[in-house]
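Technical note accompanying the year-one report. For the benefit of new consortium partners, we illustrate the data format agreed upon in the data management plan: each record pairs a sequence with a C-alpha cell string. No post-processing was applied to the example shown here.
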Amino acid sequence: MNITFLVQNTFNGIMLGGLYALIAVGYTMVYGILRLINFAHGDVMMMGVYFAFYFAVLTKSNVVIAFIVAVLGAALLGFLIDNVAYKPLRNAPRISALITAIGVSFFLESFAVVVFGAIPKPFTSIFKSQTLLMKVLNVGGARIPVLTFLVIGITAVIFVFLFLIVYKTKIGMAMRAISADIPTTSLMGVNVNFVISFTFALGSALAAASGLMWSMRYPNVFPYMGFMPGMKAFIAAVFGGIGSIPGAMLGGLLLGLIEIFIPAYFQSMMMYRDALAFIILIVILLVKPSGLLGKKAVEKV
C-alpha cells in the first residue's frame, strides 16, 4: 500500500476515533463518579441531533445556533435524567441503577419513534450551502474532505475545553474528589448531587457534539442511530480504562484507527467491521480488565 492510502485512512481513523472518544468521555466521567454505566448515553446523543434538526427546520435559523441549542438541550436532558431516574437510586444497589439506565435508553428510543417518526431524515438538508462540506483537499496525494479537518479540529477544541473544566476549575476539582471518595467530599461541604448532575450534563453535551458531527459525516437521523456509536464508545472507554478521561480519549482514537485500518488492509474483514469492536472488548477484558490507562480497583461490597 502506498503513502496516499496510508494518509487517507489515517485521517479517516482519527476523525472516527475522535467521535468515539467524545462519547466515551461521557461514559467514563459518570462511571468514575458513580460506578454506573449509563447505557442511555448513546440515546442522549441521538436526541441532541434531533434537537438541532428540528430547531433549524422550524426556526430557519443559522446552523451554528441550532448546534449550540442542541448541545445545551442535551446537557439539560442529561441533567433531568440524573435527577428523575438516577438521583432517587443513589443509595440503592448498583444493579437497580443499571436496570434503570437500560430503561431510560428504551424510553428515549421509543419517545423518538413516536414524536419524531421512524423514517430517517436527511441531516444535511438543514445546511443552506453544502459547498464547503463537499470540498476536497489534496494532502500528500490523498483526497481529504474539508469535513474531516473540521471534525478533527472541533474535537480537539472540545477536549481542550473539557480538560480546562476538569483540571482548572473548582467544580472540576469537586468531580475528581467525588470520584475518589463521595462521603468525605460531602463532609467537606461539597454539594455532591449537584456535581453529579453537572457531570451528567457535561457528558451529555459532549455526546450531542459528537452526534452532530457524526450526522454531518453519516447524514441520516433516526431514533436508533445512537445505539451502535454508543456501544462502541463504551467499548472505547473500557479499552482505554473506564474511569480515566485520558484513557477514554486514547481508547476512542485507537478503536477508530483499528476500525478503519483493518478492513482497509484486509478487505475480507470489511463485513466484520462492527464485530471488531466487540472482539477488542473481549480481549481487553481477558488480558487487561482495567484497560490501557485504567487503575486496578477492588470492588466494594
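Partners are asked to follow this layout when depositing records. The chain is about 70% helix and 5% strand.
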